[in-house]
Design goal:
The protein has 492 residues and is an alpha/beta fold. 53% of the residues lie in helices and 6% in strands. Helix 1 packs across helix 3, helix 2 packs across helix 3 and helix 6 packs across helix 7.
Length: 492
């Protein structure tokens, strides 16, 4: 019976491969052969390929879905020619910003490629540092959502006080920690597959270094550019990327603890140069075979897999109205103008520009979009608008340097309680109402507000590791000649 089942599954895999190949152009078929050669060399020869395991990170973006299809084609092609093929680990990090669209894209891709029941493929996700089988229907755990919210707030509060709020920095740090640990799980992997362009690699590493510096890590030593220097950086971060913020025992340990190897043995295999087709050529494979669905506007404008366009625009509007003394509409308008400059520089279809204007560019759109974004922030991140405004001012670090300014701008009725607020953060006993106000306005327990009070903000020169996301800074669009945002995003 087992032999019959194996033969049946072999026929299924052969059909999947043939259908996959039918969507490949001649250039993509050539790229597939080059990928097979590259994997064979990395394994030490095709005769060793059966003992070789590679890791692919899956975010639900169009590039990660397409790259997995190419990698799966390589795995099944080798299996059709040889007694054995390489093993594949596919892993997803569950974050609050992981959209249902992204999870659906991942699930449809896995189903189309028949990876769920293939013993040569591990399909995993990580929620709150626990490695689990991938389940697109499982909600993110309450504990995981709360821990991520706390991480986001702590990382945001210790930025340079005169610097922009990089709301998505925690995503870089969480992803870096995830990559470093999932390569060590269950005897580890031999290689991490990379499909990011050099520009995307540079942005990720710089974002990770910026976030790591905020979390108290020394990232001053020289690392090789791009992902060539990624593993040394991840090794320096280790399994406790947030230890600056918490006393022992600190964060939840990675689990199951006994399943993690002490040392990493993975190397890097870069396949970006093998992604030879353009988006139009890939679209039939993505949509007809993998069932991919995209938010085109987010796909072209988001800097990373964690950011949300509405939230980025909202942050810009809040910064203008609360910090700069202008209007919310002016801030969102600047966001829109910079977005349009970048979209036209990339020669995107005018319909996408029109969509951006429709989303962010009218008084009616402002009101409705702001209300929807407030709901999104509360639902996905557990953040109220008041807590986000507090984060913009970062009033607790450096012994409360910005506290008086924050109160004058946002909570003038609390000015009379300024001395008591300082006493509370210094650890003295004060009225319960003062303690409750600190918790409500910050979104943090008092012990962590006190920890921030004792911390130094990031020095200005340390904080300028990488350009912030499109919605989190306020450069003049006419003067901004930096590289345009990346093309990967959750669901894009």
């Amino acid at each position: 019976m087992t032999n019959i089942h194996e033969q049946a599954m072999s026929n299924v895999y052969q059909q999947v491969l043939q259908r996959l190949l039918s969507f490949f152009s001649r250039a993509e078929r050539t790229a597939l052969q080059l990928l097979i050669q590259r994997l064979g060399v990395a394994a030490g020869g095709m005769e060793q390929i059966g003992d070789f395991k590679v890791l692919a990170i899956q975010t639900g973006s169009r590039d990660s879905c397409f790259s997995l299809a190419l990698l799966r084609a390589a795995q099944l092609t080798i299996a059709s020619r040889s007694p054995a093929t390489f093993h594949l680990r596919v892993a997803t990090l569950r974050l609050s910003s992981t959209s249902p669209v992204a999870l659906d894209n991942i699930h449809r891709t896995y189903s189309a490629l028949f990876v769920y029941d293939d013993p040569r493929v591990e399909v995993l996700m990580v929620d709150n540092r626990e490695v689990l089988p991938f389940d697109p229907l499982a909600p993110m755990t309450i504990e995981g959502r709360e821990v991520e919210r706390t991480h986001l707030l702590m990382v945001g509060h210790v930025r340079a006080l005169d610097g922009p709020l990089d709301l998505w920095d925690n995503g870089y740090l969480a992803t870096g920690e995830f990559w470093g640990q999932i390569t060590r799980w269950k005897h580890g992997v031999d290689a991490l597959i990379c499909h990011d362009a050099p520009r995307q690699q540079k942005r990720f590493v710089e974002g990770l270094k910026r976030a790591a510096a905020k979390a108290g890590h020394d990232v001053s030593r020289h690392y090789a550019p791009g992902y060539e220097g990624l593993f040394p950086l991840l090794d320096d971060l280790g399994a406790h990327g947030y230890r600056r913020f918490y006393s022992e025992p600190g964060c939840q340990p990675w689990r199951p603890a006994q399943d993690f190897e002490t040392c990493r043995r993975a190397t890097l295999i870069d396949m970006h140069d093998l992604l030879v087709s353009n988006l139009e050529e890939r679209w039939p494979l993505l949509t007809e075979f993998l069932g991919f669905r995209a938010d085109e506007l987010a796909a072209h404008l988001c800097d990373n897999d964690y950011s949300s366009l509405p939230v980025s625009a909202h942050v810009r509007g809040l910064h203008a109205s609360f910090v700069q003394g202008r209007t919310y509409e002016e801030g969102v308008g600047e966001y829109l103008q910079r977005a349009l400059v970048m979209m036209r520089r990339k020669q995107l279809p005018e319909r996408l520009c029109d969509q951006a204007v429709e989303t962010f560019g009218s008084p009616v759109a402002f009101t409705g979009q702001r209300a929807r974004t407030v709901i999104e922030l509360q639902r996905n991140m557990g953040l109220s608008e008041a807590q986000l405004v507090c984060l913009l001012f970062a009033p607790f670090v450096d012994s409360g340097t910005n506290l008086e300014r924050f109160l004058r701008h946002c909570h003038p009725g609390m000015m009379v309680g300024l001395p008591d607020l300082h006493r509370a953060m210094q650890g003295h006993q004060v009225a319960d109402q003062v303690m409750q106000w600190l918790t409500d306005v910050s979104g943090l327990p008092v012990n962590l507000v006190r920890a921030l009070y004792r911390m130094k903000s990031l020095a200005v020169d340390e904080g300028r590791v990488a350009r912030p996301a499109i919605g989190d800074a306020a450069p003049d669009p006419a003067k901004d000649h930096s590289s345009v945002p990346g093309e990967t995003s959750a669901g894009g």
